[in-house]
């Protein structure tokens, strides 16, 4: 099993994860991987994280993907974008007609993304769009653009032309601006049809999820998050339930379970060390917590 420093995905690990596929890359900053999948393909079989920007574009096919506990359907001409350190898992590849499915995986480091000619940081951290609508289906004209962008990006990566890096960043920036325009249209449509949405509940929910993503390895009590948000635990729980349909403790526990699964599958550290990292008082409490929520013991999950 790999060392603890490698249980998160990186571009170099993505390249190793898909040997023999058509792919181009620029060091640890950017890669484009052309994938043909069958029903038994293991794209992301276990929960994992990628430390940069990850985009999965479905040319033809149908998969179900989990991002931070929420499941999304990705089908023909649709694209999903994942921000840094999201917890990802491919939950199902649907094989309907027996034909291979076609996907393109685009990955870029945070450093690469920060140098694009688009305010990607703001798009990721401030926009509700990527929280509410991480998947978008491209209309035919944009689908055609996308195909040409991807082919040209691959050609540029493989050349030794002068100013290659600048050309690549310009192309990726242009592609993302094109996709962002489709997202903006979808968000505007949602606003028109959802004027009565509970804005405050949604805002608190987003803040709560960001806090849980940051602190779930240390704090599992709702009171901690309520204090951070200057709310009572009871009122926070009500807002979270209204906004998401799940209670605040369920969200916290789900993040802890995903963290535990990551450590069990992608590291070789002992369960005793995992108990320490996740701030459980002892192994017995951790075992009970894990089994109650997964139906398996930690050692059983690790060996499965």
Concise structural overview:
This protein is of the alpha+beta class and 304 residues long. Helices cover 49% and strands 19% of the residues.
List keywords for this structure.
304 residues; alpha+beta; Jelly Rolls; Arc Repressor Mutant, subunit A; 2 domains; six-stranded antiparallel β-sheet; four-stranded antiparallel β-sheet; 49% helix; globular
Describe, in plain words, how this protein is organized in 3D.
The chain has 304 residues and is of the alpha+beta class. The protein folds into two domains: 4-193, Jelly Rolls; 199-303, Homeodomain-like (Arc Repressor Mutant, subunit A, Orthogonal Bundle). Helix content is 49%, strand content 19%. The strands form two sheets. The protein has a six-stranded antiparallel sheet with strand order 1-2-9-4-7-10. Strand 1 (22-26) and strand 2 form a beta hairpin. Helix 5 packs antiparallel against helix 6 and helix 7 (199-215) packs across helix 9. The chain is globular and about 55 Å long. The two termini are 13 Å apart. The model is unreliable at 1-6, 124-129 and 192-197 (pLDDT under 50).
């Amino acid at each position: 099993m790999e060392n603890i420093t490698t249980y998160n995905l990186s571009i170099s690990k993505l390249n190793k994860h898909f040997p023999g596929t058509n792919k181009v890359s620029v060091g640890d900053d950017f890669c484009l991987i052309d994938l043909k999948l069958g029903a038994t393909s293991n794209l992301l079989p276990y929960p994992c994280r990628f430390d940069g920007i990850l985009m999965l574009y479905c040319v033809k096919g149908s998969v179900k993907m989990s991002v931070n506990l929420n499941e999304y359907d990705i089908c023909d001409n649709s694209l999903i974008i994942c921000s840094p350190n999201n917890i990802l898992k491919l939950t199902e590849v649907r094989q309907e007609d027996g034909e291979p499915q076609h996907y393109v995986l685009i990955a870029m480091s945070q450093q690469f993304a920060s140098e694009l000619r688009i305010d990607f940081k703001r798009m990721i951290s401030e926009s509700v769009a990527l929280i509410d609508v991480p998947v978008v289906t491209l209309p035919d004209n944009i689908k055609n653009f996308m195909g040409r962008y991807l082919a040209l990006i691959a050609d540029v990566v493989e050349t030794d032309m002068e100013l290659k890096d600048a050309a690549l960043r310009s192309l990726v920036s242009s592609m993302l601006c094109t996709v962002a325009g489709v997202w903006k249209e979808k968000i505007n449509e949602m606003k028109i049809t959802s004027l009565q949405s509970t804005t405050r509940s949604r805002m608190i929910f987003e803040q709560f999820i960001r806090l849980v993503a940051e602190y779930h390895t240390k704090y599992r009590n709702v009171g901690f998050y309520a204090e951070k948000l200057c709310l009572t635990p009871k009122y926070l729980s009500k807002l979270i339930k209204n906004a998401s349909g799940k209670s605040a403790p369920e969200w916290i526990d789900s993040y802890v379970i995903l963290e535990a699964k990551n450590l069990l599958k992608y590291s070789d550290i002992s369960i005793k060390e995992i108990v320490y990292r996740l701030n459980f008082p002892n192994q017995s409490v951790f075992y009970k917590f894990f089994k109650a929520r997964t139906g398996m013991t930690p050692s059983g999950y690790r060996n499965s």
